[in-house]
Amino acid sequence: MRIYTRTGDKGKTRIIGNDVLYKSAPRIESYGTIDELNSLVGVVIANLSDENKVLTEELTEIQQLLFDCGTDLAVSPTDKKHDFIFTEDKKAVDWLEKKIDEYTSKVPATQVFILPGGSKTASNLHLARTVTRRAERLIVALMQEEPINDYVLKFINRLSDYFFAAARYSNVLDGVEDIKYRNSKPVFR
C-alpha cells in the first residue's frame, strides 16, 4: 500500500467526503492541530516520570478521543455518508470533568495564576494545554465559516482544563511545587 497520493504536491489534500482543500484551509488547520496535539500527548506518555505512570491509561484514552475529534473535523460539511464518531453519548466531557475535579481536590488550593512548569511531566502537560488552546481557537475560526461537530469543540475546551489540572497533579506526584505568577491578582475562586 502506498502512503503517498501526490495530491499534496500542489498544496492540497482530500478530506472525508472527497472534497479537495488547500492544506492551509481552516478545516485542515483544525484537524492538523488536533493531530499535532495527539502526537504531543504521545511524547507526554513516553516521558512520564515513574510517579506519573498512573496517567498512562487516561492519556492513551485521550489520544483515542483526539483521533475521533480529528476524524470528525475532517468530514466535509456536504458529506451525507459519514456520521460523526464523537458524540455526547460517549460521555467523554463528563469523564474529563470528573478527572479535573479529582485532580483539583488533590492539589493545594490557589487563587493566582500558575507558571507553566515544575516537573518535566507537568511542563509537558502545560505544553499540551497550550496546544489544545490553539486547536480550540482554530476550531472556533472554522466554526465561524462552516458547520462542525459542536461536541468536538466542547471536548477540546474541557481538555485544556484537564491538562492544567493534570499538570498541577503531576507536580504533586513528583513532589514539586507549582510556581505562582508573582504579579497575579486573585483570579480563581
Automatic annotation (TrEMBL):
The protein's name in its UniProt record: Corrinoid adenosyltransferase
Top-rank lineage group of the source organism: Bacteria
Pathway of action: Cofactor biosynthesis; adenosylcobalamin biosynthesis; adenosylcobalamin from cob(II)yrinate a,c-diamide: step 2/7
Subunit note: Homotrimer.
Family assignment from sequence similarity: Belongs to the Cob(I)alamin adenosyltransferase family.
Organism: Companilactobacillus suantsaicola
UniProt keywords, alphabetically: ATP-binding, Cobalamin biosynthesis, Nucleotide-binding, Transferase
Domain Cobalamin adenosyltransferase-like: 3-169
Entries under Gene3D superfamilies matching the protein: Cobalamin adenosyltransferase-like
UniProt keyword Signal, yes or no: no
Molecular-function annotations in GO: ATP binding; corrinoid adenosyltransferase activity
InterPro entries: CblAdoTrfase-like (IPR016030), CblAdoTrfase-like_sf (IPR036451), PduO-typ (IPR029499)
Enzyme Commission number, as recorded: 2.5.1.17
EC category name: transferase
Recorded catalytic activity of this chain's protein: 2 cob(II)yrinate a,c diamide + reduced [electron-transfer flavoprotein] + 2 ATP = 2 adenosylcob(III)yrinate a,c-diamide + 2 triphosphate + oxidized [electron-transfer flavoprotein] + 3 H(+); 2 cob(II)alamin + reduced [electron-transfer flavoprotein] + 2 ATP = 2 adenosylcob(III)alamin + 2 triphosphate + oxidized [electron-transfer flavoprotein] + 3 H(+)
GO biological process: cobalamin biosynthetic process
